[in-house]
Amino acid sequence: MYSVKDSKDIIHMFSWCRDSMIISYSEGIIGKGYCDDLGDLTWAAVFTGDFCFLAGKPQQSKELAGLINGGGKELIIIPQTAGWLEPLVQCGCKIRPAERYHTKLPAKGFNLEKLEKLTSEIRKIKGASLVKIGEKEYNELRECLWENSFVSNFKDYGDYSRHGFGYIIFIDGEIASGASTFGYYSKGVELQIATNPKYRRMGLAAICAAQFIIECVRRDIRPHWDAANKISVKIAEKIGFEYDGGYHAFCAGSPSSHKLASAENKKTKGEING
Length: 274
Hints:
Layout: E1 2-4, H1 20-26, E2 32-35, E3 43-48, E4 51-56, H2 62-69, E5 75-79, H3 85-90, E6 95-104, H4 112-119, E7 128-132, H5 135-142, H6 157-163, E8 166-171, E9 174-185, E10 188-195, H7 204-219, E11 222-224, H8 230-239, E12 242-252, H9 257-261
Parallel strand pairs: 4-5, 10-11
Antiparallel strand pairs: 1-2, 2-3, 3-4, 5-12, 6-12, 7-8, 8-9, 9-10
């Protein structure tokens, strides 16, 4: 297995992939690439954050299996074909199937009036406030116990403030929900959204997401919402996204709040909880 130094060497193998994190990788922003043979490519893999994308002909690779098993946290594997399951299992990967869902931008654009009405709902929640993520909030999110992916793909606040943004709802001083940049590329961002289990079913995720989308429109950048479950799809549709079909993925490692415990959410990365 070879470590890829230039994304241009393998990016053509991911033309099938619709995920914004692959665009980020192609622009040299995030991720590491691997392949079986630079001179005669059969398969390629890209690891970005807690996602792994597999392209090409499925083959056994103990080195690849080692990367998948060695992270110590949950990894979402998005394969070009379901045929990757068998060779990965044969190499010792402990993976399980998962269903995820594509969304797309609304054909007529986002309804800003509707989004602003959604954000105004914060005034009806006792003790709640909607706050843009600054350095103080960034540092609090790095220590957040129930969600580890709000700012995890940024090395520090300076990096985040240049390339990302987001919003948090506090209730009586406690982080209750948030929407933040999971990843970015030159023309868009991937949304990460989640809600503290203590505060679910209060509509907080929709409020945060609405404010995030308003900011995307203001900046003229494209938001991406990759939904981890059907609850996430429903919230995306409430914000204005359109459902665009499901797709198969695998999960490796221990479930985390980011990928499985979140009931509503990527890459938003699509996991949310109320």
